[in-house]
Amino acid sequence: MKSAVETLNPTRVRLTVEVPFEELKDSLDAAYKKINQQVTVKGFRKGKIPARVIDQRFGRGAVLEEAVNDALPKFYTDAVNEAELNPLGQPEVDIKELKDNEVLSFTAEVDVRPSIEIPDYSGIEVEVDAVEVSDEDVEKSVEQLRERFASTTPVERAAEDGDVVTVDLEAKVDGEILEDGVASGVSYTIGSGELLDGIDDAVKGLSAGGEATFTSELKGGSAAGREAEVTVKVTQVASRELPELDDEFAQLASEFDTLEELRADSRKRLENMKQYDQATQAQERVLDKLLELVEVPIPEKLLEDEINTRKHNLEHHQLSQMGLTLDKYLEIQGKTAEEFDTETREASVKGIKTQFVLDELVNKEKLNVNQEELTEHLMRRAASSGMSPDQFAQAVVEGGQVPMLVGEVARGKALAVVVEAATVKDTNGETVDLDDEDEAEPETAEAPAEESEETPEA
């Protein structure tokens, strides 16, 4: 077999492959055998029809077509390996010549990973927010804990701000009660903003048994985004009482004996959270600086697929679960369709570019992923997906996604290498040590593009 590579642009090549006819022998034998099992000819047992009879009855062309389709994937793969290419997606194959008992020649155009030169990244410098926890931050954290331990007591009076009311709700659109617009025994804290716009003004001043009607835009359900006439009936009013901020509260709400110990622990927790946020910020800003240093041509077909995937996932998974259409989402975000398309394209370009650059770094730095690292990453992904580690691991294996997870871990390690070499200072001018921080995940394309294994056919 002879093959040659022509570079059409930095991300696409054309392979020209010429195959001596004798190399098709195994595929021709397999084609005759397959046709033998599919047809019947009077006077011959099934599976025992001679090749010459098949040629006469069904045409040599049908046999050749079957043989070429069987052989093409191997010849294509051999040519790719010989040229040391990294193909992305399915090739466009064109049979140029097929002469019986002489030669088969074909071309295959395919997107490939661009050649990337990683520059010296040791000079990268970034600034991140300083880790500062104020007394006000601590008091706010303690107050939130205090809110969780509030008690309620039913009262015989009109509802006020901060009260907890139990209500029945009925929503109508165009005068019709919605099937999913009726709810009973809903508990709501007035002023929390956790239910419907307008409900606070409607229930304030009502006692148990009181009823009011107001108009509100529905946030979810079958009529999400539409104006509804909502009837609310108060069945109970209860006042909320917060526990005193003292040592007794600390013992009730935590493992600490004193309020000062609780405050000190809250401060430590807030510092840890801000340190994690600082590390994530550092990684994001170092990555942005790295990407600025590297020229990466993006395959147009890969970019188009990535944009479509992101749009599909947003519209048919994330938004549909919230009962929103894309148009309604854009309205809420205050964006035009053109702005959304531009942002999606920019995010897709960055995701693909990030993947290419970090994968090249993995190769350059010869980074490997061990079982412990993969397991730790799997546990984090399982937690974020809401699945148990065993369920997530089973889904990953069954979906053939293990290589994808390995790639994610490897890219995280590559980014960590760059962050370690960079100079990171906070807004106070202090050098930040990120050695003890967890690795954040760099945003890349939805899935590694090269893992789309598709078979070329004539």
Described by the principal axes of the CA atoms, the overall outline is extended
**Helix-and-strand structural type:** alpha+beta
Q: What is the H-and-E element order? A: EEHHHEEEHEEEHEEHHHHHHHHE
Number of distinct beta strands: 11
What is the strand content?
15-25%
Number of helices: 13
Low-confidence stretches: 446-455
Distance between the termini: 18 Å
Radius of gyration: 32 Å
Largest sheet: 5 strands, antiparallel
Fraction of residues in helices?
40-55%
Task: Please state the average pLDDT score.
Answer: 89
List keywords for this structure.
single chain; 458 residues; alpha+beta; 5-stranded antiparallel β-sheet; 4-stranded antiparallel β-sheet; 46% helix; extended
List the SSEs and their pairings.
Elements: E1 2-9, E2 12-20, H1 25-38, H2 51-58, H3 60-83, E3 87-99, E4 103-112, E5 125-128, H4 135-148, E6 151-154, E7 164-173, E8 176-189, H5 199-203, E9 211-217, E10 227-241, H6 247-253, H7 259-293, H8 300-321, H9 326-333, H10 337-364, H11 371-385, H12 389-398, H13 402-421, E11 423-426
Parallel strand pairs: 5-11
Antiparallel strand pairs: 1-2, 2-4, 3-4, 6-10, 7-8, 7-10, 9-10
Helix pairs in contact: 1-3, 2-3, 4-7, 6-7, 7-13, 8-10, 10-13, 11-12
